[in-house]
Each structure stands twice: as structure tokens, then as C-alpha cells.
Amino acid sequence: MCGIVGYIGYRQAFPIVINGLKRLEYRGYDSAGICIVNGDPFLAKQKGKVSDLEAFIGDRPLPGTIGIGHTRWATHGEPNDINAHPHESMNGKFILIHNGIIENYSLLRSKLEKRGYIFKSETDTEVLVNLIEYIYLKGNVTPEIAVRLALTKVVGAYGIVVINRDEPDKLIAARKGSPLVIGVGEGEYFIASDATPIVEFTKSVIFLNDNDVAVLQRNQMVLKTIYNQALEPNIQQIDIDIEAIEKGGYEHFMLKEIFEQPRSIHDTYRGRISSDPFEIHLGGLYSVLPNLTEAKRIILIGCGTSWHAALVGEYLIEDLARIPVEVEYASEFRYRNPIINKDDVVIAISQSGETADTLAAIRLAKEAGALALGICNVVGSSIPRETHAGVYTHAGPEIGVASTKAFTAQVTVLIMMAILLGRRRGTLTEERYRELIREVTLVPDKIEKILQSEELVKVISERFKDSRNFLYLGRGYYFPVALEGALKLKEISYIHAEGYPAAEMKHGPIALIDDTMPVVVIAIKDSSYEKIVSNVQEVKARKGVVIAVVTEGDTTIKEMADYTIEIPEAGEIVGALLTVIPLQLLAYHIAVMRGCNVDQPRNLAKSVTVE
């Protein structure tokens, strides 16, 4: 969740660290802090955003070529100056930044208090930095050994960077369950929670694995495990353009990412769909396709928006490939003692590839002998490294906390998988197979057309920006879209919203409908169109206000609804990719009109790396 940045080299560290924190602020923005080493370390931290930290520091010069920084998403202790990172040990020997949760912190804190340690904050991080110091002083060992020994005593997840006052020319970094990337330069090293603060300086990176410890000096890196086993660094090249992590003239990252979807969807199927004749090639699944094709059951797991994508995947795979599919919240799956068979296939879906619950669910599936696959966006992240095989979405960096292009890219991958499996299992004819592929290739142009309705969405947003509740209805493939539309509105505008299967409205939610309740209905002309028409009539009979997403040229619902947003005609299998676009725009513009922070909504963070 939190964002970590570190630098050691020949450049001035402060601008690298502070700009890196801005790049990582989507991971947490409750408080921020830095430590710059130039002789005696300078430490500053402040409640609020990185800009508040900058304002607190002001114009004072901060020379030094070693530094660390942190932007926080609060777990232990409320957001305030004291609980902000970096944390300093009681005797001042160590300064530490941390992402993750130390689960046995209470026991460790109690033991340290009995040994005379006094704590200033409520955080588990201060416990860890004091534990390191206690081992260092009591055992008379090196800082590196103190860090490694301390980490053998903690239970939980961590990504940490440590400074020791007695050896101020070193940074010590370690991870378990919380991502850390090391950028490798000439006479310099960069550390970050992900690659976004690093790419403008180097494309060469090392992704730390669990239990790895890196000891960094300007011209040297030593990599080992916490148990002192030497490791050979695996340096990889990353392919991220600096423009991809800038706003590019848009007011918010979220709006930029909504408008990027024609390109991101195209990039997701580019190289995987050939057009003459239409064929699908998913190279990342090549070695496991026989297992996937013969699967008795597929389990799709995810959290939040990725769970909604998984629901679309359930409809797709069962419809096209006729394989039974179950969709699970990763957080529930891992704790409810699920039945997992060796001929099951478990597919984890995650934008970041670091979602803690999803990673734990994958490990559970592997322990049971199931085939574990991944669908994620971030190259080199933990899920691709934990799974047997998988598919990258190629959506590009997604900075807005509310996911948009990641959802449509995930659904695009699931569509391709379902079509490919349907053809291999003989449930799709050759003609139908090629027709469905062609439908996918037409999606980017159709989304471009939908995005032209933004002005109409602004009008609707102005009308409903002060509403207190929204209801979203959809059937079949569009029920998960209703859930996703409601989630987007909740996340960024703080308006209560619920998504429901349209037929279930009569089993409870209809009691809420009156002339102040906007009801968003996904009313596309498909196999259940007549039923959705009836649902709209039921809403109108109770004086509900209807906003309908309809197929271009529709007149029936247009006569009943208060507002309609048209989308181009398309087959059901790609319908989710099209109908979600106006719902994303609606949530965005309502949030902007309400004065909400669209890219950094309260209490949320982009990558949920803690349980």
C-alpha cells in the first residue's frame, strides 16, 4: 500500500526522493516523510500529501546523495506527524521506512518495553526499527546482521529500507510479501515500491523476492537472503515510457486512463490476434493449454474491480467453452478451507500483481496441486512469478486509484481465453470462432465513439451530483458492469451506490425507489432485452429516475428513460467493454463536480499489499 523510495549515488538525493514519492502517491497519501544523509541525517515528516511535506520543508537546502522517502496508507495508528515514516529507533542508531504489517508487533513491543524501550508512535514500524537497534547494540553485530536477525523474528509482511548512523554510506533493503524494486545505474542505485520512480534514470532493475536483503553502496550491491545465503542478482530490463506515467494534458490520471482505453485494449490483443485469417495466440499459456482445455473446473479469484472482471469471465468461459467456473473473493477463498482439486485451474486476476490476498490464494491453490495462472498488468510483479503461467494485460501504468483501463484490459484477456478454449474444446464452430475474434478487433473504434458522448455525461452528472444514493441494474454479462459502475461512483464521489441483477430489484431494492433515486440501467439489445424493458417500466411506475445505457438507435427505452447514453451495436461477449465506459465517465464527472480528489480518494490506495 505505502510508497517507498530510496537513492544512493552521486546525484542530489532530495529531488529524486521527493519526485519519486509524487509518482508513488497513488499507493498512499495519509502522510509523507524523508530522510536525507549528509553527515548527520536530516529527517522530516508531515501529515497529509507529499505537497504538504514539501511545504513544511520549504526552501531550506537539503544537500546529500543518500536519501529515503515514504508516503503512507495508514494501518497501525491514525495519520499524523508522529505515525508518519521514516521512524527512528530510540537511541537514534537506525532510521527505517516500511510497507506492510508486522503481525506480532504487540508481542515484540512488550518485550522491548521490558528492556527499557520507549515508543512515541502507535505503529508496528517503530517496533521493527527498535528491534533492529536492540539486536545491534546488545549483540554488537553489524547493521546488516542486525537487520537480518530482526527479520527472522517478525511475522507478517514488509518492504523496508534502513539507514544506520554508524554506517551512513549504506542503504539496506529487504522484502517479504511487499514489493521492492532496485534500479541499477552507473555508480548509483534506486529503490522503490514499483518502477515508476526509477524509469527516468534507468531501465535496468532487480525485483527482490521474499526474504531477499540488499546492501547498497554507491558502487556495490550485495544481495543475500535473511539467512545469509549469497544470491546472484537477476537484472531485467523494463519497458515503461516516462510519458505513460504523466498526465499528458488531462486534468486527472483517471480521465486520461478512461480515454486511453481504445489504445490499451488494442495493446492487450496486439500480437495475440492475427487477422488473416482471424486466430488467437496466447503465448503465455502455450505450455499449459492442454491442462486448461481439459480442466474440470476453473476458479477465478480477485479483489474489487478484478473480481468484477472475473464475474464477466465466468459468463464468458461457461458460455463459450462450457467449463464450470466459480468466482471467488481472494480474501474469502484463502480463509474458508476451500475444496481445490488437482485438475482445477485457479486464475488470479490483479492489476498490480501484488495484491496480498490474491497472492495468498495462489499459494493455497498451488499447495493443493492445482494449476495456478495469472492475469495481471505489472511486469515482474509477484503474481507472474508465483504462478505456473499467465497473460499480461499490457494496459500500461495505471496511476488513478479507481481502476478503469485495467478492468477493460482484464476482460479483453478473458474474452480471448474463452474464445480460444471454446475453439479447442469444439464448442465453437470455425465460423463462430472467427466472428467472435472480429468482434474484439472492432472494440477500440467503438469505444472512441462512446467517448464522444462525454458532454452528454457531463449534463447528466450535473443533474445528479448531489444525489445521496444510486442503484445500478444489469442482466447477464451486464450485471458485473452494474457492480463495477456502482463501485466507481462509491470510490471517487463518496455517494452510496449498489449494483444489482435487474431481476433481483423486486427482491428488496425496489423499496428504495422514489423520485430522488437515480437508477442506472444497462439496457442493451440482447437476449434479455424484453426483460430489461420490463424492469425499466417497474422503476418508472414508482417514480424512479432512469439513466439508461442503450444500443444506438433504440427507441423503446429512450421513450421511457429520463436520460439515455447510446453505445454502438455489438455482440454480447464484448458488451462489458463498451457499457462500462459511460459509467466510468459518469462517476468521474460527478466526483469532479462534487470537488472530490478523483485520483486519490479518501481512505483508498492503489495496490493493496496488506491484509
Structure description:
This protein is α/β, with parallel strands linked by helices. Helix content is 36%, strand content 23%. It has an 8-stranded antiparallel beta sheet, with helices on one face. The protein has a 6-stranded antiparallel beta sheet with strand order 5-6-7-8-12-13, covered by helices on one side. Helix 16 packs across helix 20. The longest helix has 20 residues, at 405-424. The protein is globular and about 80 Å long. The mean pLDDT is 91.
**In one word, what is the shape?**
globular
Q: Give the low-confidence spans.
A: none
Strand order of the largest sheet: 3-2-4-1-10-9-11-14
Helix content: 25-40%
Oligomer: single chain
Number of strands: 26
Question: Given the structure, what is the number of helices?
Answer: 20
Average pLDDT taken over every residue: 91
Q: Give the CA-CA distance, first to last residue.
A: 10 Å
Structural class: alpha/beta
How are the SSEs ordered, and which strands pair?
Elements: E1 3-8, H1 13-23, E2 31-37, E3 42-47, H2 50-57, E4 66-72, E5 87-88, E6 94-99, H3 105-114, H4 124-139, H5 143-151, E7 158-164, E8 167-176, E9 181-184, E10 189-192, E11 204-207, E12 212-217, E13 220-225, E14 236-237, H6 253-259, H7 261-269, E15 273-275, E16 278-280, H8 289-293, E17 297-302, H9 305-321, E18 325-329, H10 330-333, E19 344-350, H11 356-367, E20 371-376, H12 382-386, E21 389-392, H13 405-424, H14 430-441, H15 443-451, H16 454-464, E22 469-474, H17 478-493, E23 496-501, E24 518-523, H18 529-541, E25 545-551, H19 556-560, E26 563-567, H20 575-593
Parallel strand pairs: 17-18, 17-19, 19-20, 20-21, 22-23, 22-24, 24-25, 25-26
Antiparallel strand pairs: 1-4, 1-10, 2-3, 2-4, 5-6, 6-7, 7-8, 8-12, 9-10, 9-11, 11-14, 12-13, 15-16
Helix pairs in contact: 3-4, 4-5, 7-13, 7-15, 9-13, 9-17, 13-14, 15-20, 16-20, 17-20
